[in-house]
Amino acid sequence: MEDPKKLEEGFGNQKKLNSGEEIDITSHQGNKLDNRNDSNQDLVSHENEQKTLDQPLQIEEEEQPPIKQKSKRVATLDTFRGLAIVLMILVDDAGGAYARIDHSPWNGCTLADFVMPFFLFIVGVAIALALKRVPKVSAAIRKVTPRTLKLLFWGIILQGGYSHAPYDLAYGVDMKLIRWCGILRIALVYLIVALIEILTTKLRPTTLTPGHFSIFTAYKWQWLGGFVAFFVYMTTLYGLYVPDWNFLVHYEDRSDRYTVKCGMRGHLGPACNAVGYVDRQVWGINHLYKFPVWARSKACTLSYPATGPLRDNAPSWCRAPFEPEGLLSSISAIMSGTIGIHYGHVLIHFKGHGERLKQWVSMGFGLLILAFILHFTDAIPLNKQLYSFSYVCFTAGAAGIVFSGFYILIDVLGLRMPFLWLEWIGMNAMLIFVLGAQGIFAGFINGWYFKNEDNNLVNWIQHHVFFDVWKSERVGTLLYVIFAEITFWAILAGIFHRLCIYWKL
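-> C-alpha cells emitted (505 positions)
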C-alpha cells in the first residue's frame, strides 16, 4: 500500500503490471506518450489500465512483493505554481510604481488580479493528483485538516498584523484589530475541494464512457460542490439586504465617525455590496483590511489609478475598511478550485497529449468567452474584490490556457530546462511566500544593524546599489531589481531542492 503522506504530497507512484511495465498517469518529466494508435485502441488500452490500477491492493500484494519506487512530481504543475509566485513578487514590488499592473480599484482585471485565482486553480489540480487513490478516508482527512490549519496559521501571523517585517523590527498585534482572513481563501478552497474528493472516493469511475463530456458526468459530485458554492454566493450577493452602516477612522489627535447610506439589495458597488456586509457581521469591521484598493478609484482620488490623497468631496466609503479575502467571496472562489480539479482529472484519465489538450483548451476558451459576455453586457462585471462569477470564469479560463501552454512546451516538446527555475520556485512556493513575499527574510537581514536600525544591509543595498529604486520611476532600474530578486529566490529554491534530494526528504 502506498504511503498516504506521499499521496497527499502529490506524488504519483504507480504499481507494476504483470509485464513489468510501469504506468505513470502523472509523470510529466519529459516522457512523451505514443499517440499514433487510433482512438479505439487508445480507449481499450485505457480501460485495461484502469481495471488493473483499480484492483484491490490486498490481492496485488499477495501476487508480488511491494517494490518501492522513486516518486515523480508533475513538472507542469510546479512550473505553473512557480509562475504564480513570480507574478506575486512582480506586482508586490512594481505595483506601487506602476498602478496599471496593481489590483484593479474595482471593476476590471489587471496583472495582479491573476495571482490568487492562479494559486486556487493549481491547488485544485494538485488535489486531483494527490488524492487520485485514497487508501483510507480517515487517514486522508487527517492529512488535509492540519494543512488547512497550517495555511490559516500563516495567514494570521503574516497578514494579520503580528509581523511588521521587513522595516519594523517590532512584533505583535492588538487582538482588537487583528486581521483574521489572511489566507482564508486558499485554506477554505483547499479544505472544501479536498474533502469532496476524499468523501466521494468510492464513487469515482474506473473507466470513462466515450464522449467529450464523460469526464464531467464521471465527477458530477465535484461539480455539484462547485454549483452549491455558486448558488450560495449568487443568492446571497443579490438577495441579502444591506442596511446603513458606520465606522470610525482614527487620526493622531482625533477619531471621526462616518456613515454609509445603503438600504438596498443586489448592489455591486463598493459601498453597499453583500460581500462587505457579510464580513462586517461575521468578523467585525475592526478585523478587516484597512487599506482597500478602492481608495485608488476615480470617485476617491484624483491620482487614479495610483494611490493619492482623497478628494475633498470623496464618498465616506473611500475611508472604510474592506476585506478582499472575506467569507462570501471565498465561497465563490471554491469554483476556481473546482475548475482546477477538473483539469487534474483530465490529466489522470486521458493518456494522449491530444485528448488532454482538447479538453483543457476547449474549456479554457469557453470560460473566457462566457466571462467576456457577462462583463461587456454589464450582467456581471469582472471584479476581484467581490470575486464575481465572471471573474472566476475569466481567470480560470486564462489559467487553463497558460497551463496548457506549459504542458505543450514542457511535456510535448520536451523544453523543460528553460523553465527549471520556475519549477524550483513552484516546488518551494510556501517557503518563498513566507520568506520573500512577506518580507521575513529581509526582516531577518535588517535585524543585524550597526549603531541604529536604519543602518542595515538591506537599506544599504537599496540606497547605494539600486539608487533608492523603490522611489524611482525608471522602468529599467525597477525591473533590474525585480529580476535580481527573482533570480535570488530561484537559486535558493534550487539549492533547497538539491539538499532535499541529497537528504532524501
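DSSP finds 18 helices and four strands in the chain.
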